[in-house]
Amino acid sequence: MPATMKIYFAASIRGGRDDWASYLEIVRQLRDYGQVLTEHVGDAELSASGEGLDDRFIHDRDLGWLRTSDYLVAEVTTPSLGVGYEIGKATEWGKPVLCLYRPAEGRSLSAMISGSNRVTLKEYQSPTELPEIFEQFLQSK
Amino acid sequence: MPATMKIYFAASIRGGRDDWASYLEIVRQLRDYGQVLTEHVGDAELSASGEGLDDRFIHDRDLGWLRTSDYLVAEVTTPSLGVGYEIGKATEWGKPVLCLYRPAEGRSLSAMISGSNRVTLKEYQSPTELPEIFEQFLQSK
Fold first, then answer.
1. pLDDT at residue B33, as a whole number
2. Do the Cβ atoms of A81 and B92 come within 8 Å?
3. Which terminus of chain B faces fewer neighbouring Cβ atoms within 10 Å, N or C?
4. Alpha carbon of A92: minimum distance to chain B alpha carbons (Å)
């Protein structure tokens, strides 16, 4: 594990902020492993209308961060075009990808995520289960 | 435009089927331009629980189709991880990508889509606007 490990954290913003409390906790835990490039994703103040910046700027900034990152960690419980897009890029670029998913009645994860052999998929119900998942994934790479 | 043009149509399946009537109409119109590799996406019988096939099989089949396609046409109104993933791959592979989006109050498109310079984004409200959009996009490539 590089000393200055860079982690790109992806989660739904404009697709809906129902799970923001989970995102905040994930960012908090990931900080123990390195620099989280996208800390704002866990920000309670960030609404589904987004950051209020130009979309081209956001796209190019985020893809730049993703390129320089060592890992992509994505929370995939709330369907999101942007998160899917970033997983598509990261798997293409050979980055290790960890997807976190909270299964629930009436919810079904995309086969593009669950069926990809370049994605490590971990299900959880509570943030208390995350330390073990992060320990395994981030230490093993 | 190649005589046997192959079009990959992407739209939300497990993310939600609210817009399936639009998808059906899009597939109907796209057939005038070539072979639609993913006709089942517009199927009224297809529910959000998906096709009932193994996820690895679906992933590899769909990515194989996407690789052989000449264009990706994606309906991006309903947020979807799979659609985002496919747009991420297609833009990486240099495929022309057309995204169709119906703006509405309280809805906001991902900056990863609206901010990408490899995506042609067209807004519409009614399927009657689609023929002109398809004519422009599919004839110009």
1. 93
2. no
3. N
4. 7
Q: Does the beta-carbon distance from A82 to B113 stay under 8 Å?
A: yes
Q: Is A11 exposed, middle or buried (0-12, 13-18, 19+ CB in 10 A)?
A: buried
ipTM for the complex shown: 0.94
**Residue B119 pLDDT greater than 80, yes or no:** yes
In Å, how far are A16, B19, B62, B82 from B79, measured between CA atoms?
Answer: 9, 11, 19, 9
Chain segment A113-130, per-residue pLDDT in tens: 999 999 999 999 999 999
Residues of A whose CB is below 8 A from B38: none
| A76 interfacial to chain B (CB closer than 8 Å) | yes
Residue A140 is predicted with a pLDDT of: 67
pTM of the model: 0.94
What residue type is assigned to position B53 of the chain? Answer: L
Convert B10-35 to b/e letters by CB count within 10 Å (16 or more is b): bbbbbbebeebebbbebbebbeebbe
Contacts of A59 in chain B (CB under 8 A): 111-112, 114-116
CA distance B141 to B125: 24
pLDDT bracket for residue B141 (50, 70, 90): low
A131 close contact with B: CB closer than 8 A: no
Contacts of A115 in chain B (CB under 8 A): 54-60
Q: Which residues pair with A36 in a beta bridge?
A: A7
> Distance from B124 to chain A by nearest Cα, in Å?
18
- Three-state SS for A97? strand
On the CB side of B21, how many CA atoms lie within 13 Å of its CA? 3
